[in-house]
Design a protein that fits this description.
Layout (H helix, E strand, L loop, with lengths): L4 E6 L10 E7 L7 E6 L6 H19 L6 E5 L4 H4 L2 E2 L2 E2 L19 H8 L7 H18 L5 H13 L4 E8 L1 E2 L2 E5 L7 H6 L4 E5 L7 H15 L10 E9 L5 H17 L18 E2 L3 E5 L4 E5 L6 E2 L4 E6 L11 E4 L4 E6 L4 E2 L4 E7 L14
Parallel strand pairs: 3-4, 3-7, 7-11, 9-10, 10-12
Antiparallel strand pairs: 1-2, 2-4, 5-6, 8-18, 9-11, 13-20, 14-16, 14-19, 15-18, 16-17, 18-20
The structure holds zinc ion.
Amino acid sequence: MRTKNISEHFLPSSSIGTKRKIVTISFGPKESGKKVYIQAGLHADEAPGYLVAGRLLELLEKADNSGDILGEIIVVPAANPVGLSQWNNDTVQGRFDNFDNINFNRQYPDFTEKIAEKIADRLGTEPLENIILIRECTAEILGSIKPEGETEFLKHLLLSLSHDADIVLDLHCDHQALVHVYMGTSLWPDGKELSAQIRAGATLLASDSGGTPFDEANSKLWWELANKFPNHPIPPACLAATVELRGSTDTNRQETEQDAQNLYYFLQRRGYIAGAAPELPELVADATPLAGVDYVTAATTGVLTFLKRVGDFVHKGEPIAELIHPMNKPGAGEKVILSGKTDGILFARCLDRFARPGKVVAKVAGKEALEGKGSNLLTS
Ligand SMILES: [Zn+2]
């Protein structure tokens, strides 16, 4: 029996004459006790995720036709129609909401305190019962909130669809980058299979990245509640990850098909789809702390030439890029060298070649936490 179901969810109109929607495609039995949620395009200007989600849907459709879907799988192939509408100078600019300049993947609600109040006298000794209780309380809290405005409604809707999933994958991309992954520290090494299967060149771990992105809104409450109630077993019940599918122009068919196939194998290995996945590839790079990521920034204006490629291992102090200012000492060949503060894999670079003070031009995944990082470990 086929299980595929398509639903439309309409957002409240934010301007006269518009009505936007998201579409969810679900497969598998709801009563399986297993749920995975996958979305693409929360940052609406990040193209690869749409293609990978689309190709994954093709694979899931085939599996569904064969009766092979064993757990509930929900895919939202275009999670942010608000961002998708933000065309400017002939490009989609879907990272920040034009309405308030807030990043679409930041400032999700943190329900930990509210849940803690509800469960304090009700937690037991069985991990699974505690998981069910916490999910029920999260649903109650979500149900009690009446979001105002289109983006607030969208964020609330996406979280309502995902909050009770065992696995949440939020598909993104960087500017020019290796495949890499962000997830909670408590989710490692459980998340190793994901990183290995998708050939992630870096996996960046944090208990609290400081920005409450979508993945953390689903996962962080579990270890925060576990810390609050140490006498009750509360497992990290949601393996949520932000999966960065290389760079924004990496939309070629071979790679996006392979990425979708890898996600399919991951789901197969986790028992969502019948059949045996091929042998798990070796992990490309061990996980490192998000606090160890060196954001190499420009200190001056200038035009950028990279001296290193994504995937290169760089050493502390080694030149990564050079800046030339066309008006400072013209003809003298003066260059400003940009280098990093750590040894590690250069896993992402910016796409444009103009620098200004404070602009992040490259990201290096170091093994040790860097000093002076502060509480916000993400870029804007
Ligand atoms: Zn993104």
